[in-house]
């Protein structure tokens, strides 16, 4: 085999010309304080409040893990792939792999928010494969049982529908089922306040558009469409679980102004927002009497 030809000599003049054509870019470009403020403002609204709450819990768990392993503070962010693999592997046999993936997504968001590089790569993916293969049966949650028409009928028969709270709970349950809406898309997380850009308000419910009383309702924020929102159509159903009759009854008992959430009720302390926790508490209290397991909602 012949030896390869020698490399041509390095043309230093050409190299100098090329270097002058490529401007030096610092690792982090210098931005005005107003631009940085806008970036931070956008990042502050990049995740839903409920998601941030879960992410904060995960970051706390990660920092506790680092404490137990005596990881110096400076090595926790950016976390090396070696450290991320160790954290993921610490969940083997305890958590389902989807939960571990959610924990890593939280750590990745934490790094992104702080403008730090994310080191997770191929090795971490293989560790997650191992977590999945070694998961115990107890770490896997069974599917949520479905809500059925008969369960809504139980609510109609056992809730006090002339009561403002129970009337509000019943119509929320009916709309969530017949309109296939997530509870987080129609209810406020708080009893005493709400975000109009995230919660269905009275003004979002349009008047009936046909002889059956069918209505269109705008969901201002959904899991899929985000801030574009989506429109759902609520149609009349036969029997006690009819959402149209439930809406009409609710609006007569709780005649909230247009700017309040549709799922509000009048209490002795004034208007209150129906929360997911309160709705599920009232529903499960009824369903448990019929031997139905507790529902966690969606």
From TrEMBL:
SUPFAM superfamilies per the UniProt record, alphabetical: lambda integrase-like, N-terminal domain (SSF47823)
Gene Ontology molecular-function annotations: DNA binding
Signal peptide feature range: 1-27
The organism's place on the tree of life at top rank: Eukaryota
Keywords: DNA-binding, Signal
PANTHER family in the record: P CELL-TYPE AGGLUTINATION PROTEIN MAP4-LIKE-RELATED, PHAGE_INTEGRASE DOMAIN-CONTAINING PROTEIN
Protein name in UniProt: Core-binding (CB) domain-containing protein
Provenance organism: Paxillus involutus ATCC 200175
